[in-house]
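Let us work through a complete example step by step.
Step 1: write down the sequence.
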Amino acid sequence: MSGSVLFSLNNEGLKKRDRNLFFTQIIVRGEFSFDVIYEGSDKNASIDRNEIASIVSERREEFDRRFEYTFGLGGKGFSEEQIEMARDALSSLIGGIGYFHGSGLVSKDSKPEYNQNQAISDPELSKPYSLFATTPSRPFFPRGFLWDEGFHQLVLGQWDSSLSLDIIRSWMGTMDENGWIAREQILGEEARSKVPEEFQVQYPNFANPPTLLFAVEKIAEVYRSQSLTKAADSFVELEGEDDGHKLGSADDDEAKRLDTTDDVMAELSEYASKLLDYFQKTQVGSNKASQLNKGTTSAMRGYRWRGRTPDHTLTSGIDDYPRARPPSTSELHVDLFSWVTYMISLNAKLPLPITVNNSSESGCREAERVSEMEAQLEEHLVALDKLHWNSDKNMYCDVTFQMRDDYDELEDDDDSAYERVFVCHKGYVSIFPLLLGLVPPESEKLGHILDMIENPDELWSDYGLRSLSKLDEYYGRDENYWRGPIWLNINYLVLSSLRRNYFSVEGPYQQQVQRIYTKLRENLISNVFAQYQSSRFFWEQYNPETGEGQRTHPFTGWTTLIVPIMAEQY
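Step 2: predict the structure and record it as tokens.
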């Protein structure tokens, strides 16, 4: 059968049958391969089937050459098997890019919380819209997830910043007038048929970690240093001039339509500004904290994830991580406070949003905005420590407020009725201020966090950092999703923050930072590679006791962060 045509369809036959979808089945025993060939009507543009193997080989060589140029893994001493794993990770991430179109099920009203009996209108189908996005897992999660997407773009953006920007813009295009983006994009009846009914409705008061801002920050850095056209030209030079199908290069028409640097920066700034405004209006905490700290700033109200249940905070992305029990509107969440503070710091670095960038007073407005953001940042950094640092346990904690046992409503002031109660669970949530670079290099708090990370009885394992301390009462219990298993996205954030914010800064913890960074990176690469070799899969999470991959597979979303970890590109 070698080289023979097994089955063919021509245009005339298709027209006569008035069909455009056909199925064929081939049953073969033993090893086999086959090619699917599409031939156009232009015979000069057709590919001789005998040349396919040669063309495929050339394309593979081009990809491999560009991959090494981009990530430099060969130059870092990785083996060919390890590099092949990394190429597979990137290829699978790119292969998971999809274009989705349809209506989502959206509530016009905020979802009532806890014991509230507020009536809300029935959810309605939105107007049909489109989304260009990467997926965490093509067979299991074939749709867009806001929390995941930012991590995906940290990989894709290194490979093709233009493609990454297109995806970011597509997500930005789904933002409503208040700055809200649905955290899970379930578009169309087919998509909804794959999702349990209780998770289908998207509520406008349900936020999600703003990880797309990681990608915005990286894109902004690229645009500051060079235009997209120059980046495309560098790929053309790399791949040679004799091929009309260059990987990563823009054709002439595309190059002509590329945005100017200023327009792109202003557009990204508009998105970041609206997102911050949404979080500060919809996720703000109760006034109990500020009542206990008279004369303090509005930052002392803190922030609270909406959408809590007794066992889950799905909106935080860290679903079953232990929080206050029972849930209440008095909670304040340290990870959310850290996200908002990070958003403020990023907004301080970006130029004016596009809506005000073209005004005659843009120069003055930009100076005022930077000053305002810097003042907010300082207020939030102070409030972060005042609200969430527990000096007895030397860690950042969630907070809730409860009525004092000795409160006398006849004699005591109403403002003094409540007292703060720390909700402390060592793990990913408690280290968020470090993940987002909010802890000063010289701070004693940094030393305590590093000790927690490095302690094998707490977060440290030979395979990566556990999501919850081994000593915590909830470790490994119940659903055990974020209660111990190792997740690549948070481990990446640890490495990124250590490298970018502390590794090269002289201070009392520099050597400890360097030791943790080096060993953690080695452990992650070693284990992901070992599990890939044994199963040929990338996994959703890894067992903290054995390192074995577990749950969803293939999971070629944020687990592909192993590529920039290997390349040390953060």
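Step 3: interpret the result. Confidence is low (pLDDT under 50) at residues 234-259.
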